[in-house]
Amino acid sequence: ADTVVLGGQAAVSDGVVAALPRPRRVAGGDRAATAAAVAAQLWGRTVGADGDAFVLSGGYRPDAWALALAAAPLAARSVAPLLLADVETLPTATHDYLDDLGYGDGRTGSGWVLGDRNAVSDAVAEHAAELLQ
Hints:
Oligomer: single chain
Distance between the termini: 39 Å
Number of strands: 5
Number of helices: 5
Helix content: 25-40%
Radius of gyration: 15 Å
Order of helices and strands: EHEHEHEHEH
Largest sheet: 3 strands, parallel
Structural class: alpha/beta
């Protein structure tokens, strides 16, 4: 069996990874880049398709793990990868990932923002929505 390891060395050490059967690490330079890598590599979202859905959650607060945990069932049920935002900014990795999917020309995506305005501001949610149009 293959083992998929989510996150970089700060999340899962190389020693732990080496002890796993046929490990494959999916990671980015930070948590937002890791979420984008998971969406691209594991969900297969590399080109935007009409009807794609995403879950956007605040990923940088001390309680961000709780939001991500709560987002997992919604993401799985909706076939919608989880992407991360900061309260007042859409991280470069999240922005670039959505932008590179190439929505427009009749194709649009949609999604949900998980958390209150202290997790993801209206401006950040609107910025993400614009990238899906």
